[in-house]
Design a protein that fits this description.
Elements (H helix, E strand, L loop, with lengths): L5 E4 L24 H8 L4 E7 L2 H4 L4 H16 L7 E5 L22 H10 L7 E4 L2 H10 L2 E5 L19 E3 L2 H10 L18
Parallel strand pairs: 1-2, 1-4, 2-3, 4-5, 5-6
Helix pairs in contact: 1-6
Length: 204
């Protein structure tokens, strides 16, 4: 059986507004263009969330609270005929306050552990997959895992000095989520697009 392709998706600041440490489903709604864009991408890709959730380690909410967040996100996407194939999150932080989540790990982005786990469990070809996020830690996780990566330049990333940091260089910098989806659909075939890590192509 041929391996599947996926779009790995950061959650906060990418799919939904970035409200720090929020686990209240009533405050969750999709960013502009997310539903329509994912509906188009879902025809060719699995859709899998990859998210850091240090609020668990910090004691702000529990894994059970995050289940309600996932349920809310799935309900919002269902209105567009979209269902996430996976929802993976890292509950750890080395400076947390709640055991057993206080530790360094291989699943907190920019580490690629969650992508490797998702790829194994869903039979995903990482080299044929993409990571979309709003900060360079997302890009580094995707690139390290072997994906092609896109950053949405919405102001959440503030440190753009990437000299000597090739794993933090995205293939594309997008103005918004819809532009990221359009880029993927137009450049998904590796044979037709040579990935460059020496420049930052901007949306025209």
């Amino acid at each position: 059986m041929e391996a599947k392709r996926a779009i790995f998706l950061d959650k906060d600041g990418t799919l939904i507004p970035n409200i720090p440490y929020n686990a209240n489903p009533d405050l969750i709604f999709l960013e502009k263009g997310v539903g329509e864009t994912l509906a188009a991408l879902a025809e060719q890709f699995e859709l899998i969330v990859i998210s850091n959730q240090a609020g668990i380690a910090m004691g702000y909410f529990t894994p059970e609270d995050l289940c309600a967040v996932e349920k809310r996100l799935q309900a919002l996407l269902q209105e567009y005929g979209v269902r996430l194939s996976g929802f993976y999150y890292c509950p750890h932080h080395p400076e947390g306050t709640r055991a057993p989540y206080v530790k360094s790990c291989d699943c907190r982005k920019p580490a690629p552990g969650l992508l490797f786990r998702a790829a194994k469990e869903h039979d995903i070809s990482l080299r044929d997959s993409w990571m979309i996020g709003d900060i360079l830690n997302d890009v580094q996780a995707g690139n390290t895992a072997g994906c092609r990566s896109i950053i949405i330049d919405n102001g959440n990333e503030t440190e753009w000095d990437l000299q000597d940091e090739p794993l933090r260089i995205p293939e594309f910098i997008s103005a918004d989520f819809a532009a990221a989806g359009k880029y993927i659909l137009e450049n998904q075939n590796l044979e037709q697009h040579a990935k460059s890590i020496s420049s930052f192509p901007k949306e025209v």
